[in-house]
Design goal:
Chains A, B: Its EC number is 3.5.1.4. Chains A, B: It is an enzyme of class 3 (hydrolase). Chains A, B: One of its GO terms (molecular function) is amidase activity. Chains A, B: Keywords: Hydrolase. Two copies of one chain form a homodimer. By secondary structure, chain A is α/β, with parallel strands linked by helices. Chain A has two domains: 299 residues, Amidase signature (AS) domain (Amidase signature (AS) enzymes, Alpha-Beta Complex); 230 residues, Amidase signature (AS) enzymes (Alpha-Beta Complex). In chain A, 38% of the residues lie in helices and 12% in strands. Chain A contains 18 helices and 13 strands. An eleven-stranded mixed β-sheet of chain A has the order 1-3-2-6-8-7-12-13-11-9-10, with helices on both faces. A two-stranded antiparallel sheet of chain A has the order 4-5. In chain A, α5 runs antiparallel to α6. The longest helix of chain A has 25 residues. Chain A starts with 8 loop residues before the first helix and ends with a helix. Chains A and B meet through α15 of A and α15 of B.
Chain lengths: 544, 544
């Protein structure tokens, strides 16, 4: 296509945004004049206090616990239709505040919700374990009838003619997908901004980013515009926004949940597969999602999903286990986590020790090697996939962790990367097994949410993608500018490098005061049940 | 390395073979003059009748059922030492007849067997589920202290300093690895010949090949020089030699069994992973191996093995299931199986129908597409891996299914192959699910064992590697020159192509009279338990 024939990307963007916004009911669209100014103050409560929601709708959307909401739906205390409408309203307000939405499916969702209500009325039975639960989906997940642009301007108009398997299983379980959410261009970055849909803001502090790549989910679920969202994670993209937005986020091992039918960038990159996982406001929501998806037998519809049904006994055993041996990983040996993470780890260690567990130091296996392998895997195509995707209309290329500007590898060289990966994974497995820990507790990131348009450091999460271990981010704390002052001297073990010092220089306690701090519970591979069980133990020790 | 500096490959070969043969005890080494001439007659019984084995040793090695042998070992009816010695003797005779052995570990094995006997004597307990079972391993599996050349001359002398995980788990289960076995150069071919160790012959008819790539195992287990062998399979390499040699062979789904620590060609090729699987003389042996390996918790030692313990209930349910719906796949739509396969399928259909099952036609999903994807995946490196491996001493390159002579793909192009694979697997899964079959029954190959130095056609097995389905080859029949004459006219649906006709022209009933015929039971992905259970049903219907 010559440049002359290419569509004007800015025109496409304007049209796409206008089409989306036209689907926001006028009565739910708060005029800009009535919105609070964009500043460092939290807007999480604004939708509940702005007067648009009825008291019942406020009550519905303030139920953080998905299980509580599901119980009320099953008992017909609420109809699916009214729960959906409450969330539609709140999502519309959220959208004007923090810009999380890419695609709107309100009409479809309303129809599905009515069907669920009719079904329950007629049969006395819920459709499935998620009966009536509105859910938001990261833009990648196809919903029949709308685009899944993954924020590439050139993908606008490629309407899905079928649901992704995840979408279909959610609907089968009774969930009601009603919006899709924002992500960074290429999906290979840990902030959420792109040319097509713009930047998503952090509802706790709109001067800060939401992390990424599932940052639309992070923002929307945190502001209670959705009770549960589905993101994806190839280097931390569920856990980082969960951590930055004060949510729970689960990265399962590869293919435990069905990715089939989701649009992705760099498709065919199998060295480190992207996985999907839920973000929600209580830990039990992650468990409920996991059980519901597995109950749908995803292996019948996704050729990559192994047949591993939910194991209640493994979950129960993990949750009940006394005297756990917990590996505390306080550093990735490359960048020291900012002071609020150090405090969070200290709090966690004290609480878990008090609860009778054995908290021991855990040093990750050669994380530098892991980082190099990840970089080589993600960059192997020399950015061809990304460049092809943006070439359709020459949209500008933003920041990303891909091979753009790097030489393309050959297939043989890619095989050598795979080989290094397997050697690394073997050594790391031996290291983990020899440590004899039940799980590892570590920071979700180096930094809390930071100013928009920064760089990203993803080793604390990416390491577990490379090893394919199950990891859950828990919102254990938040920055307290008084308790977490900037370091006045180097950490006790000194700076690892100029880069370490440079990263830590970015810490601005006053700017990020109150920003959420996440820690990860990391269990082994395909140990979703154990990770969820152990996370309960950690959560209750710290918060209970 | 300049040519001047490279070792003379023929000298390396001569030295390596001499070193190996020096490990054959002189008293077990039958002089060439006392060996039968190489002709079309079976030599399976020769070791039992040549006078070298004692009657007790004949009795031991004639026990085909691994479970029966294990029971006698556990009851101390036989010691591990005497069972091993019987198999060592028979393997030595076998070696002079059909050339299956690459590496000899008799001394280590004798020591391990004595330890097992002492342990059972002292504690009254067997070490594990394979207590005292001699096992042979395809050359890929490292045993500490010997080479794992995979038949590359340039790999001679790279002594392993550790056991492969499979080796270690077998020993932990009480098995006694005592020899390693032959495979083709590159491992990417379905016959078993190479410059380093020569050609392995089929004990049923030494004018014929054994199939491959695990042809050393096929020959050694068939001639009862080993009760159970471990092969590997990336396109049929366990099932083809099992089929050609009249054995049972299991290809599990990828990474169900631990490949870690095995040497391989084309390492890092992950598009279609090679897997390991057992070959043995009774079906129960496959089940016993599977249970024993999984009982060793391979996921603790191999980072790629998912934590999927043996499920007795799934096995029992599959075995007991009545009224199965069985898909009979009589063709790959490219090459018609030779007449003895048609008869074997007919026999199986009649027997299964009589046993109350519903046998329906099954047409595979677009096998031509599958073949193209396999070819592209295996050839992606343009043969660089293979060329590098032989460059060490310029050994001649034999036939192989690799990229030698083809252009090397780029990493981006390899991603596109991966993408096509996933699309194909999704469509094939939908196709399979919609067919609603419990399992598929199909030929293991187009041809029985054929003359040495031919070409190979692997679509009947390779299709299941691409889809990663569990498949078991059963020795259901053998060629009967009278019952299976050469076709006098085209098949009822006509030749698919000149290639189809060309392949079928190779069929020579007189030459291959008596050669084994295998059929595969194919269940879905990670359905080893179901495949083993269904295989029992098929076996009993046909043979019971």
């Amino acid at each position: 296509m010559t440049t002359a024939q290419k569509p004007d990307w800015k025109a496409v963007v304007a049209r796409k945004r206008a089409e989306r916004d036209a689907l926001i009911p006028a009565e739910y669209d708060i005029p800009a004049s009535k919105l609070p100014p964009v500043d460092g103050k939290s807007v999480v409560s604004f939708p509940a206090t702005c007067g648009l929601l009825t008291p019942a709708e406020v009550a519905i959307t303030e139920i953080d616990d998905v299980d509580v909401l599901l119980a009320k739906l099953a008992k017909r205390e609420y109809t699916a239709a009214e729960v959906l409408e409450a969330y539609i309203k709140r999502a519309c307000i959220a959208h004007r505040l923090v810009n999380p939405i890419t695609e709107i499916h309100f009409d479809d969702a309303r129809r599905w919700a009515r069907e669920l209500d009719d079904e329950l009325q007629a049969t006395g039975k819920t459709r499935g374990p998620l009966h009536g639960l509105p859910v938001s989906l990261k833009d990648q997940f196809r919903i029949k009838g709308s685009d899944a642009t993954i924020a590439y301007v050139s993908y606008v108009g490629r309407q899905a003619d079928h649901d992704a398997v995840c979408t279909a299983l959610l609907k089968e379980a009774g969930a009601v997908p009603f919006v899709k959410t924002n992500l960074p261009q290429t999906i290979m970055f840990a902030e959420t901004r792109n040319e097509l849909f713009g930047t998503t803001l952090n509802p706790h502090n709109r001067l800060l980013h939401t992390g990424g790549s599932s940052g639309g989910e992070g923002a929307l679920v945190a502001i209670k515009g959705s009770p549960l969202g589905v993101g994806t994670d190839v280097g931390g993209s569920v856990r980082i926004p969960a951590g930055m937005c004060g949510l729970f986020g689960l990265r399962p091992s590869s293919h435990r949940f069905p990715y089939e039918g989701a649009v992705n960038s760099m498709e065919g990159q199998e060295t480190i597969p992207s996985v999907l996982g839920p973000l929600t406001r209580t830990l039990s929501g992650l468990t409920t999602f996991t059980k519901a998806i597995l109950a749908g037998r995803p292996w019948l519809y996704d050729p990559l999903v192994p047949e591993m049904p939910w194991s209640q006994s493994r979950y129960d055993a993990a949750k009940a286990k006394k005297g756990l041996k917990i590996g505390l990983m306080s550093t990735d040996l490359h960048v020291h986590p900012f002071p609020p993470y150090e405090r969070a780890l200290q709090v966690a260690r004290d609480a878990l020790t008090k609860a009778g567990h054995d908290v021991v130091p855990f040093v990750p296996y050669e994380p530098g090697q892991g980082l190099a392998i990840m970089g080589d895997a993600f960059c192997a195509d020399g950015g061809r996939d990304v460049l092809e995707a943006i070439s359709g209309c020459d949209e500008p290329l933003g920041p990303q962790v891909t091979g753009v500007g790097k030489p393309e590898k050959s297939a043989y060289e890619l095989w050598q990367i795979n080989k290094r990966k397997t050697v690394y994974r073997k050594r790391a497995l031996d290291h983990w097994r020899d440590a004899g820990v039940d799980f590892v507790l570590c920071p979700t990131s180096v930094y809390p949410a930071m100013k928009h348009d920064d760089e990203c450091w993803i080793l604390y999460t990416g390491l577990w993608n490379l090893l394919d271990y199950t990891a859950i981010s828990l919102p254990v704390s938040s920055v307290d500018a008084k308790l977490d002052p900037k370091r006045s001297s180097p950490p006790h073990d000194g700076w690892y490098s100029d880069d370490d010092r440079r990263w830590n220089d970015k810490y601005d306690p006053d700017l990020v005061d109150g920003a959420p701090i996440g820690l990860q519970v990391v269990a082994g591979r395909y140990r979703e049940e154990e990770a969820l069980g152990f996370a309960e133990t950690v959560w209750h020790a710290i918060r209970g």
